[in-house]
Each structure stands twice: as C-alpha cells, then as structure tokens.
Amino acid sequence: MRGRPIETGRVVRGRIRPPGSKSIANRVLPLAAGAEGTSEISGLPDGDDVRRMLEGIAALGAVVQQVAPGSVRVTGIAGPPAGDTRIDVGASGTTMRFLAGFAATGSGATVLDGTQRMRERPIGHLADALRSLGASIDFPAVPGFPPMAVRGPIEGGRVTVDASVSSQYASAIMLAAPHARSDLEVTISDDVVSAPYLEATVEALQCFGVPVGRHETGWTVGAGSYRAQRLAVAPDASGAVYPWVGAAITSGNVLVEGLDRRTSTQADMGVLEVLERMGATVTQEPDGIRLEGPGRLQGVEADLTACPDGSLGLAIAAACAIGPSRFTGLGTLRVKETDRLDALENELRKVGVGATAGPDSLDIHPGDLRPASVATYDDHRMAMSFALLGLVTDGIVIEDPDCVSKTWPSFFTDLDAIAPPSVDVVAIDGPAGTGKTTVSKAVADALGRLRLDTGAFYRAATLVAQRTGAAVDAGLADELASHAFTYDDGVMRIDGEDVSAAIRTAEVTAGVSAVSAVAEVRARMVDAQRDWVRGSGVGVVVEGRDIGTVVFPGARTKVYLNARPDVRAARRAAEVGSDPAEEEARIRRRDELDSSRETSPLRPADDAWELDTSDLTIEQVVDAIVTRVRSS
Ligand code: DC
Questions:
Q1: Could you tell me if the CB of 223 is within 6 A of ligand 1?
Q2: 43, 116, 382, 388: least surrounded by Cβ within 10 Å?
Q3: CATH number of residue 318's parent domain
Q4: 517 lies in which domain range?
Q5: Rounded Cα–Cα distance for residues 124 and 135 (Å)
C-alpha cells in the first residue's frame, strides 16, 4: 500500500462538518432495531464501524433500507431479536458489545465474532453482567474473549457492571435494558472509564422515549416497548479533534459545525479545555465551535480519563508545544485498535519528539521535528493525528493512509480543503518528451504565473556530482547541502553561477537518473523546490516527475502528461537532431529507471488528470489545461 506524503507549511482555516458521531450512531441504531415502527436516521458517518452495526442489526431481524448517503430507514423488531444468527463485527468494538447486549435479550443463540484484534479485546465483564441477569454466555475459544455465543432472555431487577476496562459494557446493558422482563437498575462500578460515553447512552435512550431514572451510582432503565424516531446524528467530537488540533498547531482558525459545547455530552469535547489551557481560544458560535490557535502552544499536564480518543490528537499538540506535557488516565489506550500508548511512543520518537509511555501515562518532550514515514498500526486515529504533524513539518509520510476509512474516509481531502497549499500550485508531471517544458511555459504565461522546472534541480545536483567527483550515494546530499541552488525566471544557478547551459549537456542527461534516484538527494531538492514555491507568494506552475505525488500532494490542479514512446522519441530527435531509434531506446531506458526507483517513482497522482498528448498539438494541450485551471 502507498504512503501518503503530507504537504507542509499549511494553516488550518475555514469551516468543516466532521462525519456524524459513530458513538451516537451505534447507540441509536440498535435502539431503532428494537423499536416499534420505522425510524429515519440521517447524518450517519460513512465508516466500517457503522456498516458493521447496520449489518448486525439486519442479521438480528431489523429491516434496513439505505435512502441516501448517510441516511437509513430502520424498521424495528418491536422487542427482543429472535437470535439464531452469527454476526461478524469486524474490528468494531461498539458493534461487538452493544449487539451482544441486544442479542442476549432474545431466546435464540447468537454468535458474535470479529477480527484477530477483536479476539484480543476483553468482554468478560459484560458476560458476567449478562449472566447475572439470566442470559447464557459461552466462549467457544478463549474465556472472556470473542467469539462469544449469547442467548437470552434477561430479567430486570438490579445489576452491577464492572466498567473499569470499558464503559461500553455498561452502555451495552443499558441499551438492552428496555427488552428485559422488567425495569433494570444498573449500578456502575466507581472506577468507570470514559464516563461521558454513558451520558451519550442515556441521551440515546431518551431520544427513543425510554424512561431513564438517574440515581447516585447509575441509572434505572424502564422495560417495555418504545416507538421509532426520526433523528439526525450530531457530528463526531472525536473527529472534530483533528480540525481543532490542526488549527491549534498552525496558528489557524477553524469553525467545527454542528456541535454545541453547552449541551454536547460527547466525551472528546473535553479536548477543548486542554487546548484552551495550552493557549488556544475557543468560542461557541450559533452554528458550531470555533478554535483559534495561538502563536505557539504551551505544554500542559492533563488527566485524559474522560477523553481517551482525543488524547492522540492532543499528543500531537503537545509535540508542537513549548515545554513538556504529561497526560495521565490513558490505561484504556492499551486495549484499543492497537496498543495506542506504545504506538504513540514509537512514532513520536521517530519524528524527533521525546516520548515515554507509562502503564497509563504519556510524557512528551518536544524536540526538533524530522521527516519520517509514520506507521499507523491500522489505527485511523494514528493516521489522522500524525497527518496534522505533517502540516507543520517537512517530510511526514503516512503509511497505510486508507485506515482512516474506519471513521472518516474522506479525511485527507477534507483536510486539504481546510488547509489548502499556501500557494496555488498547478502540478504538471510526466516522462520526458511529452511536451512538459513547452506546455508548462505556455500555461504559466497564459495564467500570468511563475514557473518552476524541477528537473533543473536534479540536473544541477548531477553537475555538482560530476564536477566534484562525489560518489552518487547518500553522501552526495551532504555535498549538495554546501551549495545554494536558486532558480529565477528560467535560469538555474549554483552558488550564483548561471549553469542553465551546463546542465543540458549529454553527460548530465546521462547521469541524472542515477542522481535523482538517491532518496537523500531528493529530500534536499524537494526542500529547495518547496522553499521556492513558498517564497514565490503567488500562483505557480511546477513541472516535474513527482510534483503531484510528493512535492505538492495538495496542489489544486494536477496534470500528468504522457505520450507514446515513439512519438516522444521523434519529438526529442527533432529537437536535438539525434537519431529517433536511438532516442527511443534512451527514452525507454530512462522511463524504466524513473518509474522503478524506490523513492518517488514516476507515476500519476491518484487524483491527477491524465492527458495523452500523442495526437494533440501543444496549443490544444495548453488550452485544455488553462481551461481546467480557470474553471476549477
Ligand atoms: O525534466 P528533465 O528531463 O529536465 O529532468 C531531468 C531528470 O530529473 C529526469 O531524468 C528525472 C529527474 N526528475 C525527477 O526525478 N523529479 C522531478 N521532479 C524532476 C526531474
């Protein structure tokens, strides 16, 4: 799977509505499944967790009809499910726990199972509580861990739930309670973790008209049928953490729509208070919550027991702050999608931050941030958090970026929308002989923009190697670091010397593929190119091989020019007066080298517009690109 480079030097600004809360969605869906009548639920987030829940309630007998993206009609079972089914919850913890509770109210046997990681996540405390209410629970593999077979019904009365590992056990019991034989008084152990999630459960029950009485150590949930509802799921505060932290670390200003600080019970709203203590300004506005970042965040000490998911984003804020931070109350992070404390420690260290994870704490000492390829551990929150770090430091690549699909499939596009490149970039990539140079010059002229030829940087690096006799390996990057590479109005200079002609010799052309394949050389040249664009301050046209994929992945317009090798060879031969057959052989060899190298191989960006210029005139290509830029 491909890593995703994050373009740096961006500021988070504007407004955004994160996907609906999966915590709310996965509470209202099992309630809709048990209701009498047809519920209409909108604002559902598009992710694996909710999809598993929808599949699960359908397996238990609810009729689920998708009416629009994020909107479903659920015709309820009007009571406990029949059971006698098997549910694969995948990696979704809430689906596992909440459907185990719901299924345990029915008299048929239901088996719930999931991924290998799910099989390592404990569920024994929920089984204990359900058994004490009369359900029969079996663990066919390992006692206390999925797979789990449940069979009801459950009685009402009293139950105490050990919620020291996960508050979801208590939520599962409360969501199942309307289907018990009589009212159920649920007492929560006093070492409950993530308590605000229980409020979300109470709210969901109340939305469906289920009577809930509050007492000192828990709640009493009324048994009996309840009616279907029409409701919109509020945005996810756990998702809102990322735009907020993004604005906090980039001195930005972002409005997260659809959330109300005064009434929301979502656990991760707690992140706001910590960011305020770090120096951010938070304002409630009529349509959402605005966060404005300070010049620089300050380190902080905070107990994050109540907002464990948000701690990953806060760890990134702490990594960008002045002074150390200490977060406690994080023991539950060790039993999430991955051991998140270990994952944070490993990856923070990789990017140059001093990080020490204790049994339930994380100490962070900011350091000089450095480029790194960040592993995600198949954890969406790791991917989203470290992507933010990429906004403020060069060279962050997120491995396995697709794991964000768990809760926010369009995360990277949405991030680009609120953190656009500071300069509007038209990226024109493609192999040699596709007309890139002529086309990019004409496009820049037509748009009145500056143009950057990045190939000139690799040619200049090659010239340095040839002049100094430096070996073509990582050490060459050190030699390059002692020279200044500047590009101005089509003129390439090394330490002030105009080398525009010297970099076009056959000798340089023959050597440049090897030089441009060295990762350390590329890192240096990419820095120089980004500096040039940042310094230009206006819209630019950048021509190269990896502009849309690596140098400016957030470019607004990405074009990938291509042409048949024989056409490209004929164009080259006409230009330099060489033999077309020899030219074609050279072109094929260079294509092979450029596209098979390990670092930044030549390929179109996923979102590039691919244009085959074989049968087009230069004017046609230029017109097409200019029209596209003007209309986008
Ligand atoms: O565009 P050109 O032929 O002047 O480029 C010279 C070489 O530099 C080419 O072999 C590929 C390499 N190059 C690169 O690897 N990445 C870029 N962004 C631009 C050029």
A1: no
A2: 116
A3: 3.65.10.10
A4: 425-631
A5: 13
